[in-house]
Specification:
It is globular, with a radius of gyration of 19 Å. It is of the alpha/beta class and 334 residues long. 39% of the residues lie in helices and 16% in strands. The protein has helices spanning 33-41, 48-66, 71-82, 89-105, 110-140, 166-175, 192-203, 216-221, 247-256, 288-291; strands at 6-9, 12-16, 27-30, 148-151, 181-185, 207-211, 227-230, 234-235, 241-244, 261-264, 310-313, 320-323, 326-329. Bound molecules: 5-S-methyl-1-O-phosphono-5-thio-D-ribulose. Residues 43, 46-49, 88, 153, 155, 159-160, 164-165, 192, 231-233, 243-244, 309 line the site of 5-S-methyl-1-O-phosphono-5-thio-D-ribulose.
Length: 334
């Protein structure tokens, strides 16, 4: 990739500011974990795996910043970071994983604690990179040369530590010379598809066509989509999947038009503690994100709004899950 989504730089975390893309390529360095939390909340870094990695680095930054290295103090920093966004399980998963290693190894000095924290954050980062590559390889086996793939939001390199999940499948096909093409939903209201997915695919020379979200059904009815591939923020034990708002509608369209619907996600996105999608907390976003899209007022003052960031696609609409360990059948694929 021609950009770095997240990077450790000394005792700081460097993020590409995704709110500025595609117009400006700006990197910000963070040495304050509260500022990293704000960066997660304003979607400067976003996407389930990427916010998990950022959370792990934020814990190390927090200990450098405060100099506090008792387990109780580190747990308190971890709780604050976990509260940044509620839906993606990767965030809590990453913090819990670092804390669990800390409790096992009980390092006795500030230096030793910091060494462990940076080390575990880097391992999580590297593992995510590898999981993306494997997801890509497994997913590519489902796609034929010349196929057209529709994707929603951004589940690419900008959302992970590697080549992405849904876009990982697309990159793998591209590297294998399969000559695929991509339709990218713009993804209202924050336009991750328009601003991020189309940008990163174009960087790699992939044939991408941007569409408004409402155009997907027409493309399917015309037979122009062979597969839908999306990412996930959290997958419940029964396969119900939280992903960017609009995913559920896409899955309904795909079933109606008999187009396979795939969810691509790493092991860290499967929540072993939540039985069904009903248990997944869905983040509500500020009204301004739909009334003042990117600075322009586009709705009457004081209009009522409803703005969930994610929806839940029932397992029965999922043809298969593409994971780092292989392909698992979804409810629609059985
Ligand atoms: O609000 P966002 O941009 O963080 O939402 C991101 C998504 O919904 C992605 O599809 C999901 O996190 C998977 S990223 C590999």
């Amino acid at each position: 990739m021609k950009f770095e989504t997240l990077q450790r730089v000394g005792e700081k975390l460097r993020l590409i500011d995704q709110t500025r893309l595609p117009g400006d390529i700006v990197y910000n360095d963070y040495d304050d974990y509260h500022e990293i939390i704000k960066a997660i909340q304003r979607l400067e870094v976003r996407g389930a795996p990427a916010i998990g990695i950022a959370a792990a680095y934020a814990l190390a930054v927090g200990v450098v910043q405060t100099g506090q290295y008792e387990i109780k103090q580190i747990e308190a920093i971890g709780r604050t970071i976990k509260d940044a966004r509620p839906t993606a399980v990767n965030l809590a998963w990453a913090i819990d994983r670092v804390l669990s290693r800390l409790k096992q190894e009980t390092p006795g000095s500030l230096d030793a604690v910091l060494k462990l924290l940076w080390d575990e954050a880097e391992i999580i980062h590297e593992e995510d990179r590898l999981m993306c590559t494997r997801i890509g390889e497994h997913g590519a086996s489902l796609i034929n040369a010349g196929d057209a793939i529709l994707t929603h939001c951004n589940a690419g390199a900008l959302a992970t530590g590697g080549i992405g999940t849904a876009l990982g499948v697309i990159y793998a096909c591209h590297y294998q010379g399969k000559n695929i093409s991509v339709y990218a939903d713009e993804t209202r209201p924050l336009l991750q598809g328009a601003r991020l997915t189309s940008w990163e695919l174009m960087q790699e020379g992939i044939d991408v066509t941007l569409i408004c979200d409402s155009m997907a059904a027409v493309l399917m009815t015309e037979g122009r989509i062979n597969h839908v591939v999306v990412g996930a923020d959290r997958i419940a034990k029964n396969g119900d999947t939280a992903n960017k708002i609009g995913t559920y509608g896409l899955a309904v369209h795909a079933k109606y038009h008999n187009v396979p619907f795939y969810v691509a996600a790493p092991s860290s996105t499967f929540d072993e503690f939540i039985e069904t999608g009903r248990g997944i907390p869905v983040e509500q976003r500020a009204a301004e994100e739909i009334t003042e899209g990117f600075g322009h007022r586009t709705a009457p003052d004081n209009v009522q709004t409803f703005s969930p960031a994610f929806d839940i696609t029932p397992n029965e609409l999922v043809s298969a899950f593409i994971t780092d360990t292989g392909i698992r059948p979804g409810g629609r694929g059985r």
